[in-house]
């Protein structure tokens, strides 16, 4: 039986990536090297490291990165590798130390700024330059209340590639700042272990052709999504709440008072931003939802989703469950769809890929961007 292929016909249908882009371990390694390890990666919420010595480890491409708060209150990032024999320095995903980081193998010890400060018999080796054996530093920037890291020797412009994504989507450099995300409090965090390639999750987030099929709660709150046009389809457009909908909640009931700087032009609207490669930012008048993806294999992606509210809402013990439940259902529905899709990526039916309908054509821009990065061999910035 000859292989089944999909051939796009006419202007309504354009081709997707071939299936191997979602299943090939070699291609995934290339993406790790040329995308995840070259671009700014949203690693950890700054507020999670609330005191000196707090640390968290995250997987960025092929590297494990350690983010810690120093005694002066600054955040620093390092490769999580002891400079002696290469043991992983911090073996837990998060923790707290008092003054230093000590390797559990041979007890080489580093201060919170990454400097080598002690090791067994080090005083008997006066020729060892301690400054040459500190932890390998990783570039770090803070934005929206999160620490973003970049493994590249020469990181790309943060303003162009990260902040620029928000400006490009919203059409206004100040729009995202009005939500005051860096000053919001964590109301809920849910971690999802998704058995699907990270690009399927990005593509799903970028379109709403599926919304009427699998998101009944979301389309009740945002009726225009039932027509298949995603919030990201138009620059500067926010999907309007439906008539009679009082808040961005699972049943459309009242949420909380809108954030202080949100004006009438952004009230009762939902905005969505994709910051390539692995961040989604969702903006509604009374809270912000931020997704961080951690691609771990060609068929596995961990997604950490934070619901952020005004500090007084969280401090008061207010019930945030109805607003959390709305997007938790959306996440569960989306990730189930991605997991249903992943097995077919290795089918002969998807050998040449599938198709995008007109309301999905903008996903083709993402595909073109991805191919440029994967094909890049000169080490230049994305």
Lay out the secondary structure:
Blueprint: E1 14-15, H1 25-36, E2 41-45, E3 54-60, E4 63-69, E5 75-79, E6 94-96, E7 100-102, E8 109-111, E9 116-118, E10 137-143, E11 146-150, H2 158-170, E12 185-194, H3 198-206, H4 211-214, H5 216-221, E13 239-240, E14 269-275, E15 279-284, E16 287-297, E17 300-309, H6 311-315, H7 321-341, E18 355-356, H8 363-375
Antiparallel strand pairs: 1-18, 2-11, 3-4, 3-6, 4-5, 5-10, 7-8, 8-9, 10-11, 12-17, 13-14, 14-15, 15-16, 16-17
Helix pairs in contact: 3-7
List keywords for this structure.
2 domains; Naphthalene 1,2-dioxygenase Alpha Subunit, Chain A, domain 1; 18 strands; 6-stranded antiparallel beta sheet; 382 residues; 7-stranded antiparallel beta sheet; alpha+beta
Strand order of the largest sheet: 2-11-10-5-4-3-6
- The CATH class of the largest domain turns out to be Alpha Beta
Report strand %: 25-35%
What count of domains describes the coordinates?
2
Number of strands: 18
The CATH architecture of the largest domain is Alpha-Beta Complex
The end-to-end distance, rounded to whole angstroms, is: 42 Å
CATH superfamily of the largest domain: Naphthalene 1,2-dioxygenase Alpha Subunit, Chain A, domain 1
Q: Summarize the main sheet.
A: 7 strands, antiparallel
Number of helices: 8
Task: Describe what you observe in this structure.
With 382 residues, the chain is of the alpha+beta class. It has 2 domains: 41-143, Rieske Iron-sulfur Protein; 173-373, Naphthalene 1,2-dioxygenase Alpha Subunit, Chain A, domain 1 (Alpha-Beta Complex), CATH 3.90.380. The protein has 8 helices and 18 strands. The strands form 4 sheets. The chain has a 7-stranded antiparallel beta sheet with strand order 2-11-10-5-4-3-6, with no helix packed on it. Strands 12-17-16-15-14-13 form a 6-stranded antiparallel beta sheet, with helices on both faces. A hairpin with a 2-residue loop joins strand 10 (137-143) and strand 11. The model is unreliable at 1-5 and 378-382 (pLDDT under 50).
């Amino acid at each position: 039986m000859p292989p089944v292929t999909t051939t796009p016909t006419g202007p309504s249908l354009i081709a997707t990536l071939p299936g191997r882009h979602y299943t090939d371990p070699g291609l995934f390694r290339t993406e790790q090297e040329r995308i995840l390890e070259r671009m700014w990666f949203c690693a950890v919420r700054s507020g999670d490291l609330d005191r000196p010595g707090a640390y968290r480890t995250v997987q960025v491409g092929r590297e494990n990165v350690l983010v810690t708060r120093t005694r002066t209150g600054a955040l620093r990032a390092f490769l999580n590798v002891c400079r002696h024999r290469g043991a992983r320095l911090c073996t837990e995903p998060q923790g707290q130390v008092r003054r230093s980081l000590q390797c559990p193998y041979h007890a080489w010890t580093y201060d919170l700024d990454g400097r080598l400060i002690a090791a067994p018999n080090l005083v008997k080796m006066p020729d060892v330059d301690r400054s040459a054996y500190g932890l390998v530093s990783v570039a770090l920037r803070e934005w929206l209340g999160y620490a973003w890291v970049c493994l590249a020797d020469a990181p790309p412009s943060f303003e162009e590639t990260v902040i620029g994504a928000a400006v490009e989507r919203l059409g206004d450099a100040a729009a995202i700042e009005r939500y005051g995300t860096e000053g919001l409090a964590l109301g809920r965090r849910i971690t999802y272990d998704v058995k699907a390639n990270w690009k399927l999750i990005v593509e799903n987030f970028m379109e709403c052709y599926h919304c009427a099929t699998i998101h009944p709660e979301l389309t009740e709150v945002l009726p225009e999504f039932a027509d298949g046009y995603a919030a990201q389809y138009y620059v500067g457009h926010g999907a309007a709440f439906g008539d009679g909908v009082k808040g961005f909640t699972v049943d459309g009931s009242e949420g909380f008072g809108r954030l202080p700087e949100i004006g009438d032009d952004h009230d009762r609207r939902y905005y969505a931003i994709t910051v390539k490669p692995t961040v989604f930012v969702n903006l509604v008048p009374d809270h912000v939802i931020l997704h961080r993806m951690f691609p771990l294999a060609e068929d596995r992606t961990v997604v950490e989703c934070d619901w952020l509210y005004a500090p007084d809402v969280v401090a008061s013990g207010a019930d945030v469950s109805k607003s959390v439940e709305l997007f938790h259902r959306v996440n569960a529905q989306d990730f189930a769809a991605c997991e249903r899709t992943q097995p077919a990526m290795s089918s002969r039916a998807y050998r040449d890929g599938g198709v995008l309908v007109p309301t999905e054509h903008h996903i083709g821009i993402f595909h073109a961007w991805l191919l440029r990065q994967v094909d890049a061999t000169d080490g230049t910035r994305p």
